[in-house]
Amino acid sequence: MKFTDGNWLLQPGVVAHYPAEAHDAAVSGRGLVFHAPVRPIRHRGDTLQGPLLTIRIDTPMTDVIRVRIEHFSGAADRGPHIPLFPEKKPKVQIKVTDKEAILRSGGLSAHVGRGQAWGVAFKSEGRALTGSPPRGMGYIEWAGRGNFVHEQLSLGVGECVYGLGERFTALVKNGQVIENWNKDGGTSSDQAYKSVPFYMTNRGYGVLVNETGPVSFEVATEKLGRVQFSIEGQSLEYFVINGPDPKQILSRLTALTGRPALPPAWSFGLWLTTSFTTSYDEKTATGFIEGMKSRDLPLSVFHFDCFWMREFDWCDFQWDSRVFPDPAGMLKRLHARGLKVCLWINPYIAQRSSLFDEAARKGYLLRRPDGSVWQTDMWQPGMGIVDFTNPAAKAWFQGHLRRLSAMGVDAFKSDFGERIPVDVAYFDGSDPVKMHNHYSVLYNEAVFGLLEEERGKGEALVFARSSHASGQRLPVHWGGDCQSTFESMAESLRGGLSLGLCGFGFWSHDIGGFEGTPPVAVYKRWIAFGLMSSHSRLHGSSSYRVPWNYDEEACDVLRFFTKLKCRLMPYLYAKAVEAHEAGVPVMRAMILEFAGDPASDTLERQYMLGDSLLVAPVFSEDGSVDYYLPGGHWTHLLTGEVQEGGRWHRATHGFLGMPLFVRPGRVIALGSVDDRPDYPFSDGVTFLVGALADGEGASAAVPDLKGRTVATVTVRRRGRLVEARLDGAAKKWRLQLAGVHSVESAEGGTARAEALGAVIDSSPGADSVRVRLPSAP
Question: Model's pTM, two decimal places?
């Protein structure tokens, strides 16, 4: 939302009030309070009339500073609020002099000048990060539109802005106007299913606007050297989060708003669905499953989409008996095949649902201000929306899911939750405008919480489309409705990377695209991208996504990449544990791992899967792809080819290949099982070592299925000697030196050659291996 008309004018009807000075500064508890008149106070007469803005600065946790701007403070706080988990008593240092007031939290400090034009400077260990310059903060009166509060934080030359939710637009948000308002807009628009009022920059800090309502962001648009964020009302609150490393920013963000739960290992395997509007029954599902098995295509989860329920009845949580006459028996038969089962749900109750009258009568549905049930014909005719602020409604909704869970359902796809009206009254009195975005969090909390109760911690997950700040606590999330094109495939990747830069650890997308039937080249290329994502699901709208509907090579591609992902599970699950414990996503924009490389600032067609594996999906039918490798010697995971970093590369790949590179100086744990994602990861584990420089060391941890570390290998190179030491338990472990095709000698094991690199099979009982490399030619 723009309040100005270029550099000199205001929009018609706008009256803008900007803090002119810090008239006084006082220590209040563990923070500072400033009163800032909107004109300089030259004599007592200037103190008459307002506005007078109150600015509070404090710290909720180390290396995070909160700023709150208020005009009128007497408005009722109806909520909701972003869930926060602050430290109990973070250390803070406050210093007030005649010239300056300073608040320090860890290495982060806020500086407010006194006796001069108003401004706030944020510094990290004395290094300038950003600041609120003169006329940065503002209180706006706009005739016919309302009152607003805005803040503008400065951007430096070359500073790039990232995040702001699952945004399918360019990864770098400079030049974009972003409305923080969840919408069901697909991946081909500037709308978002998951709006998150958080951004970070390549200068080493992040900003979380502590508002659930419709924050409007002008990212280097209204003022090209600033990010402006504004909201209607009388106050605005935000946090500045210190880095300087971008992974530290996300770690602090998720410490404040909640870490992602650890999904079960089985959820990382391949998911197959019925698709949406296709025709299906148990015979259809069984035919798909048998077709996958007969073609040696590992399958972990089968998902039933909307029409497991009868048309017009969504949701009544009852199987359509016309096509599923024995659901309990069917679920047992699917479990006997080693599969998990997921069901589609949404938070809406259609008027024809057998549950509607009960929900309406008991006050479980959102109501209009006049007390009538809010209803619409959009999506399900006459549907109402469950009011999760009513504890009885939440328990009622969960009760139906509990019955399905007891029947054998393992997970729920918690679809929708974006089109939440504002002309409603909530049971707990919440502000309906501020609840629009936050509704998605309450909805997924109800579903995820039920699954945790029924399945236990570490076994619960949803497959959610909508979310907001703090929603990362409730994985997994997927990218919504995409087209079956290369362009939409790229859009989806941009959205997933942007969401990851907001602290969401686990993300998926519809392999092949949702709308339409993908051309065979799109389908095959998307398979590779999909399996090299944290979670992998074949799903469509009006056509099935089984590979034999395309051609036999599609089966080969799916088999190859599914088995590769299963072998990568020791590494991937260790990265999942890192997401759970530190808030760093599994799929990472290049800026997260290579913040010191300017070439990584704008990369949006490639990413890191964890910290050690670079992935560049192929977005072309002919297999041509451009990708950038940061400095060092990178080894292709599939071929063993070594390529020099610090430059761009161009290659052409068949459908069984893609740029997939092992990072120099890193270790990737590869498993010995390729037909399922959940197995004892340490049994027969191979520790694949990327190119090690002389004097360099690296390590890798192997978790069990609960996320506990059971084995760790440490590898170090000294000249021609490479030594690996194992701590913990690992049966028949191996060391593999990527890109090294022969060794001079090996102690503690037996060496053999493989295309990817020399393998040393450890001797029985050995906890170390020493390898001497050949002399350089």
Answer: 0.97
